[in-house]
Specification:
The structure holds two protein chains of two kinds. By secondary structure, chain A is an alpha/beta fold. In chain A, 32% of the residues lie in helices and 25% in strands. In chain A, the strands form two sheets. An eight-stranded mixed sheet of chain A has the order 6-7-8-3-9-10-12-11, with helices on both faces. By secondary structure, chain B is of the alpha/beta class. Chain B has a domain of 234 residues: Rossmann fold, CATH 3.40.50.300. In chain B, 31% of the residues lie in helices and 21% in strands. Chain B has an eight-stranded mixed sheet with strand order 6-7-8-3-9-10-12-11, with helices on both faces. In chain B, helix 4 packs across helix 5, helix 5 crosses helix 7 and helix 7 packs parallel to helix 8. Chain B is globular. Classes of the chains: A alpha/beta, B alpha/beta. At the A-B interface, helix 5, helix 6, helix 7 and helix 9 of A face helix 8, helix 9 and helix 11 of B.
Chain lengths: 292, 336
């Protein structure tokens, strides 16, 4: 089966320092490759600055990659002009971390959800309205609230609105960039459950970007661990959490505070100064690690 | 109250802190909060945003600014009632006997002074050291907080440090006056998980070597489980459950604590998370009865009428535990 998304040798460099200092390049994303299968939830985890968010944005070309290929549904997104890219993006949507800053505060939430339909000239006014009501129902919001403004909703509800907007065009892939990390713990579970229900109902594929390893373990089929712009380990979620092979993955997993004493493991420390970028190699079926 | 050694170092009784809302009404961000922290003990205060945990901490330090005010209660620290103490006396306690570590060191540290200058200032304000001696002490404290190359870092400004180093500097600053109690409000929330683990290790080690009492405020149940002796769970301005950490997390008594533990993504993949319906109410929208009642699956008729009283739990897992829930008032801890 061909993967829905194929990322190959993706690189994104940023210039550090102004032109007066000459400026050096930093590789935020440094030659990463992975595939995401249809209906899979693929996790991209790592700490701040590891390049996981930049990777998500490069896939959508919200940030232009410096080099590398992103093939989605057989189409190389890097080669598309603006018009074709817009058409391709119908199928490829993003949900952002912060539901407080990602919704236009001056638009009614119904209009926020309807906007993608207008941009892509889909349906008549009545059809679009009906679709908005349907989308509200789908994400568990009352369609009677379409005339309200974002500030009238709680964080969890706002994240549902962002999700309804992302779903408006029936995408096959959703890039969820820290979709619940701004929410209270008791509300996180509601949104996670909703994401999983929608996946089952609509056959969605998720690229799930997160720093919370407990959550990643819960929702992802396969997980790639990023460190300094590189993927250091990639494995099925159960395998990654039970038999992490890279020293950084081991350190990351052992640093998570555990509620139950039985779950606690010995802390592994990772010496950041000794990190050398290595190529991934398959150490077990489907389990890749950048180790010697 | 005398400062005998077996009395708790900090005792908060019936604390109520209110804020005047935009429409002129008053909303109680903290209602009838009572807790104790003994010498050398760590109490974890957990809750979600808006639960009142940070307001509780600021009230203890009497740092509540208008439109907020402390409306009722007593705060006894080592025999002194902090709420009736003169401001100049309070200053000999705040920062000296009670240190504090805030979530965002970039905000809490002064951006125009070096890290070293800020520690030196604290030492000299409290008359602990000045001049060259204070500078030497500042470097020692940075070293104790495991800041690498402390002499060089002492001369740097907060913006020159990484998030983890800044939090270490903040801890050095909080501890340099050798307080007996440290209040740490989400000290690791802004940090990456590996840095968080290092900061928690540091707090644990310093707590042991200095015999500190710690009031640790966090939303992360894992952090509480690993750090605290006892836990107080806050929701909607009230402490809904209190007791030894292991027991509370093993056999949670309050429906909110149960829900909070159940919705943690801590288990294996695939199984659905147990979600708590609804959302955390905001200040001014707290219901008249139990603040958790609108989201509670086990709610009774009386839950909507008036808030339940604090009940001591009986039975096998009851030692030292209290809960604020009608389920336990009617059946005296009989329910699971």
């Amino acid at each position: 089966m061909t993967p829905l998304l194929q990322v190959s040798h993706l690189v994104r460099e940023f210039r550090r320092g102004g032109w007066l200092q000459g400026g050096t390049s930093v590789r935020a994303v440094d030659d990463i490759s992975f595939d995401v299968q249809q209906r899979e939830t693929f996790g991209l985890v790592g700490e701040s600055g590891c390049g996981k968010t930049t990777t998500g944005r490069c896939i959508l070309r919200l940030i232009e990659p410096t080099s590398g290929q992103v093939v989605f549904n057989g189409i190389d997104l890097a080669g598309l002009n603006a018009r074709d890219l817009r058409r391709a993006r119908k199928d490829l949507q993003i949900v952002f971390q912060d539901p407080y800053s990602s919704l236009n505060p001056r638009m009614r939430v119904g209009a926020i959800v309807e906007e993608p339909l207008i941009i892509h000239r889909i349906g008549t006014r009545e059809e679009r309205r009906a679709r908005v009501d349907e989308l509200f129902g789908l994400v568990g919001l009352d369609p009677a609230h379409v005339t309200k403004f974002p500030h009238e909703f709680s964080g969890g509800q706002r994240q549902r609105i962002g999700l309804a907007r992302a779903l408006a065009l029936n995408p096959s892939l959703i890039i969820a960039d820290e979709p619940v990390s701004a929410l209270d713990v008791s509300v996180q579970a509601q949104v996670v459950n909703l994401l999983q229900d929608l996946q089952t109902r609509l056959g969605l594929t998720y690229l799930f970007i997160a720093h919370d390893l407990r959550l990643v373990r819960q929702v992802c089929d396969r997980v790639a661990v990023m460190y300094r712009g590189r993927i250091v380990e990639l494995a099925p979620a159960d395998r990654l959490f039970s038999a992490p092979a890279h020293a950084y993955t081991q350190a990351l997993l052992s640093a998570v505070p555990r509620v139950h004493p039985d779950d606690r493991t010995t802390r592994v420390r990772f010496d950041h100064t000794t990190f050398t970028p290595l190529a991934l190699r398959e150490i077990a079926p489907g389990h890749f690690a950048a180790i010697t | 109250m005398n400062s005998t050694s077996d009395a708790p170092l900090l005792r908060v009784e019936g604390l109520r802190t209110v804020f005047t809302l935009a429409d002129g009404r008053e909303g109680a961000a903290v209602s009838d909060v009572s807790l104790t922290v003994s010498r050398g003990e760590t109490l974890g205060l957990v809750g979600e945003s808006g639960s009142g945990k940070s307001v509780t901490a600021l009230s203890i330090l009497r740092l509540i600014m208008p439109p907020g005010r402390i409306a009722a209660g007593r705060i006894l620290f080592d025999g002194h009632d902090l709420l009736t103490l003169e401001e100049h006396m309070l200053r000999t306690i705040r920062g000296r006997r009670i240190g504090f570590v805030f979530q965002e060191p970039m905000v809490a540290l002064n951006p125009v002074y070096t890290i070293g200058q800020q520690i030196v200032e604290t030492l000299s304000v409290h008359g602990l050291a000045r001049g060259a001696a204070a500078r030497a002490r500042a470097i020692e404290w940075l070293e104790a907080a495991r800041v690498p190359d402390p002499a060089r870092r002492a001369a740097e400004y907060p913006h020159q440090l990484s998030g983890g180093l800044r939090q270490r500097a903040m801890i050095a600053l909080a501890l340099c006056a050798e307080p007996s109690l440290v209040i740490a409000d989400e000290p690791t929330t802004a940090l990456d998980v590996t840095v968080q683990a290092e900061i928690l290790d540091l707090l644990r080690d310093l707590r042991a070597s200095l015999g500190l009492a710690l009031l640790l405020i966090t939303h992360d149940l894992g952090v509480v489980a690993e750090m605290a002796d006892r836990v107080a769970v806050m929701y909607g301005g009230r402490i809904v459950e209190q007791g030894p950490v292991a027991e509370v997390f093993q056999t949670p008594a309050h429906p909110y604590t149960r829900g909070l533990l159940a919705c943690l993504p801590d288990a294996t993949r695939g199984h659905r998370l147990v979600a708590i319906a609804g959302t955390v109410p905001s200040l001014g929208q707290f219901p008249p009865g139990c603040t958790f009642a609108p989201r509670c699956a086990d709610r009774l008729a009386e839950c909507d009428v008036a808030p339940p009283d604090v009940t001591a739990l009986a039975g096998e897992h009851g030692a030292g535990r209290t809960v604020r829930c009608y389920l336990h008032q009617t059946t005296a801890g009989g329910r699971p």
